[in-house]
Specification:
five-stranded antiparallel β-sheet; mainly beta; disordered N terminus; Immunoglobulin-like; globular; 48% strand
Amino acid sequence: MISMKTFLTLTAAMVISLGIVSFNTHADVVISGTRIVYPQQAKDVSVRLENRGERPLLVQIWLDDGRDNTNPQELKLPFILTPPVSRMDAKRGQTIRITYLGDALPQDRETLYWFNMLEIPPKSASNQNQNLLQLAFRTRIKMFYRPAGLNGDPGLAAQTLRWNLVEESGGVKVNVINESPYFVSLSSAALKTNNQSYRIITETLPPKSTNSLAVKDLTQAPANAKVLYNAINDYGGTIKSEFEMGSP
């Protein structure tokens, strides 16, 4: 197995020789989907990888719980991923199987993990006498563990968010309340007032939480405003919603 210490020294995991440089600047392996949902009742879930490049690659996969620079062997997460390391020939695919080990996790809300894929290119036999920069590309997407019997519809969770304005000395923020048991992944949000639009700095909203989000370039809370926001559903699609609110 490739040393994880080597991989996690740099997020992009680069092997560098100084001098004249030759390198490939894009990842070849594609993950089927932008997020993974693991229902509690499932025996396992599968993730499909595809090597769309012109050369064989070594691929290593693991999960983390948000500590993205920690050696996976130290995390002790309740999942097994197989195979953890595989060779992928050009124009071929690979199925990764994720299996839940049954350890205790919260049953009243989702738990967030991250699926990591590191793609290692082979050394080029034709460039033995050249200085070479090789990039090992790391891709990281969300994985939601979803207990059985949660209230509500995960596809409608974004539409149940409640927003209110908070005026502070440093500017205006919005509090957004997610009372659902599901994570809501915001991709964009804007505060609309008096024909003006102000961008809201978005993030993923945990279940049963209140989150304070900054509003760019707004120094005073308006009397009336509307929030227009987009969230990402289980399939990577966009859910468009809006919320009317008054002054703080």
